[in-house]
Each structure stands twice: as structure tokens, then as C-alpha cells.
Specification:
Strand order of the largest sheet: 3-2-1-4-5-8-9
Bound molecules: uridine-5'-diphosphate
Structural class: alpha/beta
Shape: globular
CATH architecture of the largest domain: 3-Layer(aba) Sandwich
CATH class of the largest domain: Alpha Beta
EC number: 2.4.1.-
Number of strands: 15
Radius of gyration: 22 Å
Number of helices: 23
Protein name: Glycosyltransferase
InterPro entries: Glyco_transf_N (IPR058980), UDP_glucos_trans (IPR002213), UDP_glycos_trans_CS (IPR035595)
CATH superfamily of the largest domain: Glycogen Phosphorylase B
Helix content: 40-55%
Distance between the termini: 31 Å
Keywords: Glycosyltransferase, Transferase
Mean pLDDT: 92
Enzyme class: transferase
Length: about 500
């Protein structure tokens, strides 16, 4: 192995993992923390008290398995940030106007983190910071700790948005709905400014965006949750474009092998009856169940839920439907009660947090209707499950392009515009039950197109699993990342 240590994390190797407080960020970074701990490193996973309660189940599971992972609680002063008490996660922000103060106040965690790190033996080897936590640059500079930046989205998204920025298309194109082609790609990918929006690209977030870019430029390397065989051209080109080390180490969700670990992933404090879900799945034929979930943030309006329901009934498929709206809205609750009664034999609706990886990796699941958040997308890929894509906002539209047009392991339900935009043009946004039924039938029933999609998805799942096994591309990349971090830390000590 070219002199590389196979399991290089020594007892005195100490990684400090700092995710943004949002489920779609904390979950993959907690998985990364677990992967590093499994290589023998000590890991401090930094979060706030409220989020620590969600991650406690996963941390306790890790400790019980003999891994050295410590959950470190750093206060997030909501009041000083102008946020309601307890607003410590993106999914708890009550209105859109509170997003800017949330992001602008994250740096308030820097001093408490420095105090914690100063007391630590072993002293930190490397910080792995979420892209959205640029303030870790100051922690790294002040304490002379190497720092890598973790990117949540697909490399496909990162490269497409980079190309659009390099060609100044965000400035040159004025009509947000105008369709144009992403330049310099090996295939034709058509987007609009609405469907290829960059993170933080709103007028009131310009300072945050600049800070994020500065912190990325100053980083010692980038870490991505993807795998080389999934998007090789995009990864090579991205690495060339950014001109620094890019460590591709996913799919990180494949850390979880047993049901107990999968069950506590993401929100171990949620009250789902995992046993009941598993038991229900056990009674179904392989590949017969459709799983529907739109992630941790997106919400679907009543009118649209009804259409999904009718489309689903018409498709005749069994289903597990994650419906957070049913926990929050009385009108939905009432409709769900009737729908559940009608479909008692066909499916179950889970009203709060669902153990997604436990469900999606079960052999009974044969299709995933997803909002194309990158974690969900990659979890489906890793499980070899074909997708019905229903993007809502952010990077989800480009992830859909990757799935439907590049990988060809899914079909689009037919969304054209982001959900936040659609609320202003209600009727255009709306997708009727026929589209739902048709896409479910294509992916999960007979027919050549579906057969080919399922075959490709299955093969890609195999490739993903191999990438994470010893000797696989992501496994080896993680070894190299650990070695590189140790080397960087050694150099910093020598130069002090
Ligand atoms: N997730 C889950 N249960 C839920 C909702 C989401 O386990 O009820 C997990 C899902 O497996 C994924 C993450 O939360 O790992 C969501 O990330 P993604 O990027 O897919 O979407 P986001 O929630 O950020 O929109």
C-alpha cells in the first residue's frame, strides 16, 4: 500500500468534526466521524445541546462498539443571535427571515470551541469543518490546527455551479427561468438560475457567501460524500478546478451495517417503533415496497399530498410514506386518518422522524420517491434502489439531473420549478395524480425502461459497497486523508 498505514489512526490522532446544525449536514458528518473512529482515531463531534440529544443514540452506540467518539456540546446563544430560544437546528427555524441571523451567528461558537480544544490531550490533529461553518478558519489559525472542509452536495452539483460561476452566468442571465446549458461538461445539462442556485446566493447573505469562499480557499483540502466510480469525470475535473486535495470518502451511510445502528442514525431521540417497521417490511416481497420521503426540511401542501395519495393508490404498490406534515397540521392529520383506514393492508405512514437508512436498505424496498437531497440520493444509490425524483429546492434539481440523465437510475416525476418559487404560481407547481402513478409504475412495475433502471441501480449499489470495503476507492481515500492530516499536523508543530 505504498507505505500507507492500513488503519492509520493512532490513539493520539484526534479529529475534530464540526457539522452545521441541520439534519442533512449533521448526519453525514456524524457518519464520517464514526468512520474515522473505526480507523482508530479519537473523534470530537462538535454540536449544541439540543442537537446532542438527537445524536446521543448514535454516540452511545459507537461507544458501546468500542469507538472513541466524544459528543462535545458547545452552546449556541440563540438570544444573542436574535433567534427564539432552542432554535439550534435549521429544521427549527420558524420563518425564512430568521435564516440570515442563524448563519451570521454561528461564529459565536468559536471561542467555546477554542477553550475546549486547548484543554485536549491528545491535541487536535485536524479539524473537518462543514462548508457552512467558515468561522472554524479562525479556530484553525489561532490554534494552528490543519483544517479540511466537508462539502455536503454531490460533486456534480459542485462542478456545475463552479462552471456557471466561472462563466459568470449567474450575472449574465437575468431571467431566472431562462433555460441554458452548463458549459464545458461532457454532456448537455440544461438548467435555469432557479434550478442551479448556489448555496447562500441571496442578497442578504452576500457576506456569509464571501466568508464561506474565503474559508474554503484557505482550507488544506476538501472532503466529499460521494465515490469515485459514481461521478469520475466530475470528480477529476472538480479536483483540477479547485487545485487542492479532494478526498472522496463515501457513501458514508454505509458505515452502518446493523439494524440497531441504522435505527438511531440521525435522531436517536425520535419515538418511531423500529421493530414494527421492520416487521411490516419482513412480510413483503423483495422489491415490492415504495418508500416516500422528502427529507428533513421540505414540506408538502395538503392539495399535493392528496394527489400523491391518489396516485399511489392507483399504482397499486405497497408503501411506507414519511409524512412530517401529518404531525404538524390538523387538516392533514384528518385526511391521513381516512387514507390510512382505506390503505390499511397496503402501507404505513410514519408521522415524525423515520429511520430512513433502515428502510431504504431493506430488500423489500424497490423504489424511493425522494426530494433528491444529496444524502437521500446517495443512500438510495448505496442501497441499489431506483428513484422517483421530486426535487424541491437548492442542490436537489442538479442531483435529479445526475440521477435521471447521467446515472439513469431513476425517473423524474416532472417538477419544473423550486417549491419556494412555486408557491407564487400555485397551479403551475402542482403535479397531478397521473404523474405520480405513471412514475411509480415506470420504476416499479413491468416494462423495459423500468427493468433497465432497476438493473443499473442494482449494479451501482454493488459498486458503492465495494468502494467502501477494504481496498475500495473510498476506503483507500480515507486512509490517505488520515495520513495526510497527520503529516500536516506534524509540519505545523515543527514550524511553530
Ligand atoms: N432522514 C432520516 N429520517 C427522516 C428524514 C431524513 O433518517 O425522517 C435522513 C436521511 O436519511 C438523510 C438526511 O436525513 O441522511 C436528510 O438529508 P438530505 O440531504 O437527503 O435532505 P435534507 O433533509 O437536507 O433536505
Amino acid at each position: 500500500m505504498n507505505g500507507l498505514i492500513k488503519n492509520p489512526g493512532q490513539p493520539n490522532t484526534h479529529f475534530v468534526v464540526v457539522p452545521l446544525m441541520a439534519q442533512g449536514h449533521m448526519i453525514p458528518m456524524a457518519d464520517l466521524a464514526l468512520l474515522l473512529a473505526r480507523r482508530g482515531a479519537r473523534v470530537s463531534l462538535i454540536t449544541t445541546p439540543l442537537n446532542a440529544r438527537r445524536l446521543r443514540g448514535a454516540a452511545d452506540h459507537a461507544t458501546a462498539s468500542g469507538l472513541s467518539l466524544v459528543l462535545v456540546e458547545i452552546p449556541f446563544p440563540c438570544k444573542a443571535a436574535g433567534l427564539p430560544e432552542g432554535c439550534e437546528n435549521i429544521d427549527l427555524i420558524p420563518s425564512a427571515n430568521l435564516f440570515p441571523p442563524f448563519f451570521k451567528s454561528l461564529h459565536l461558537m468559536a471561542e467555546p470551541l477554542k477553550s475546549y480544544l486547548r484543554t485536549q490531550p491528545p491535541s487536535p490533529t485536524c479539524i473537518i469543518s462543514d462548508q457552512c461553518m467558515p468561522w472554524t478558519m479562525d479556530v484553525s489559525n489561532d490554534l494552528s490546527i490543519p483544517r479540511l472542509v466537508f462539502h455536503g452536495p454531490s460533486c456534480f452539483f459542485l462542478l456545475c455551479t463552479l462552471k456557471l460561476a466561472e462563466h459568470q452566468l449567474y450575472e449574465k442571465v437575468t431571467d431566472v427561468e431562462e433555460i441554458f446549458t452548463v458549459p464545458e461538461l461532457p454532456q448537455r445539462i440544461e438548467v435555469s438560475k432557479l434550478t442551479a442556485q448556489r448555496f447562500f446566493d441571496w442578497p442578504e447573505m452576500k457576506d456569509v457567501m464571501r466568508h464561506v469562499q474565503e474559508a474554503e480557499d484557505a482550507a488544506d483540502g476538501l472532503v466529499l460524500n460521494t465515490f469515485y466510480e459514481l461521478e469520475p469525470w466530475y470528480i477529476d475535473e472538480y479536483r483540477r478546478s479547485v487545485g487542492k486535495d479532494v478526498w472522496v470518502v463515501g457513501p458514508v451511510s454505509l458505515f452502518h451495517k446493523d439494524a440497531s445502528g441504522k435505527a438511531v442514525r440521525g435522531d436517536g431521540s425520535a419515538g418511531v417503533d423500529h421493530g414494527r417497521v421492520l416487521q411490516w417490511l419482513e412480510g413483503r416481497e423483495n422489491g415490492s415496497v415504495l418508500f416516500i420521503s422528502f427529507g428533513s426540511i421540505a414540506r408538502t401542501r395538503m392539495k399535493q399530498l392528496v394527489e400523491i395519495g391518489f396516485g399511489l393508490e392507483a399504482s397499486g404498490r405497497d408503501f411506507i410514506w414519511a409524512m412530517k406534515e401529518a404531525e404538524e397540521n390538523e387538516e392533514v392529520k384528518k385526511w391521513v386518518a381516512e387514507f390510512e383506514e382505506r390503505n390499511r393492508k397496503k402501507g404505513i405512514i410514519i408521522k415524525g422522524w423515520v429511520p430512513q437508512v433502515l428502510i431504504v436498505t431493506h430488500p423489500a424496498v424497490g423504489g424511493f420517491m425522494t426530494h433528491c437531497g444529496w444524502n437521500s440520493t446517495l443512500e438510495a444509490v448505496a442501497a441499489g434502489v431506483p428513484m422517483i425524483t421530486w426535487p424541491h429546492f437548492s442542490d436537489q434539481f442538479l442531483n435529479e439531473k445526475l440521477v435521471v440523465e447521467v446515472l439513469r437510475t431513476g425517473v423524474g416525476v416532472g417538477v419544473k420549478l423550486p417549491a419556494f418559487y412555486q408557491t407564487q404560481v400555485d397551479e403551475e407547481a402542482f403535479l397531478g395524480r397521473e404523474k405520480v402513478e405513471m412514475s411509480v409504475r415506470t420504476v416499479m412495475c413491468g416494462g423495459k425502461e423500468g427493468e433497465e433502471i432497476r438493473k443499473r441501480a442494482g449494479e451501482l449499489g454493488e459498486t458503492a459497497r465495494k468502494a467502501m470495503e477494504e481496498g475500495g476507492s473510498s476506503y483507500e481515500n480515507l486512509s490517505k486523508l488520515i495520513n495526510q492530516a497527520m503529516e500536516l499536523a506534524g509540519n505545523r508543530v515543527q514550524s511553530m
